[in-house]
Amino acid sequence: MRIIKSFNILNKEINFNKNIGFVPTMGSLHKGHISLIRNAKKKTKKVLVSIFVNPSQFNEKKDFIKYPRNLKKDISILKKLNVNYLFLPEKHEIYKKGIKEKLSINNKDKFMCAKHRVGHFQGVLAVIDRFLVNINAKY
Questions:
Q1: In this structure, what are the phi and psi dihedrals at residue 85, rounded to the nearest 5 degrees?
Q2: Residues forming the active site
Q3: Would you say 118 and 59 are in contact if contact means Cβ atoms under 8 Å apart?
Q4: Distance of alpha carbon 121 from its chain centroid, rounded?
Q5: How far is C-alpha 27 from the chain's CA centre?
Q6: Of 22, 90, 92, 100, whose CB count within 10 A is highest?
Q7: Do residues 131 and 50 touch, judged by C-beta distance below 8 A?
Q8: Nearest CA among 76, 96, 98 for reference residue 86
Q9: Cβ(85)–Cβ(2) below 8 Å
Q10: Distance CA 18, CA 58 (A)
């Protein structure tokens, strides 16, 4: 498994216009993540998993600090699953200077987590937006 920490290297290593499965996570991998990874492996030629504990998904700083992190265990799980790539960006890689950490969404777009966890879904959308902006894919 190749561990990558920057978008520049990610773009050099991966041709996103090929058959790549992407499973974004905040780590602390569990059965749900494993199911997503196995599904991606069945449907794609290669799998990329990201681990980024996104501060903008937390309303309380103490919740962000308390979020469980066990990178060694996560890497062990990913290796056993034969994941091809692990993307481990730092905050500055995702949210470069001047980039908003939350996107605005309309009331009609508030579903799932967005209904009950104010600001959470805006943070999810922002990090996925940053990922899509920074990869060399045509989608």
A1: -135, 140
A2: 33
A3: yes
A4: 13
A5: 9
A6: 22
A7: yes
A8: 76
A9: yes
A10: 33
88 and 52 Cβ atoms separated by less than 8 Å: yes
What's the maximum distance between 2 C-alpha atoms anywhere in the chain? 41
Q: What is the DSSP letter of 25?
A: E
Q: Which residues, including other chains, have CB under 8 Å from residue 103's CB and lie 6 or more apart?
A: 122, 125, 126, 129
The two tokens of residue 62 are 């103490």
Convert the pLDDT of each residue in 42-74 to its tens digit: 999 999 999 999 888 888 889 899 999 999 999
Whole-angstrom CA distances from 133 to 73, 74, 126, 127 are 30, 26, 10, 10
Structure-token pair, residue 27: 């780590």
CB 59 within 8 A of CB 117: yes
- Distance of alpha carbon 125 from the chain centroid: 10
Cβ 56 vs Cβ 82: under 8 Å = no
Each residue's pLDDT tens digit, 65-108:
999 999 999 999 999 999 999 999 999 998 876 655 555 665 54
Helix (H) or strand (E) holding 87: strand 85-87
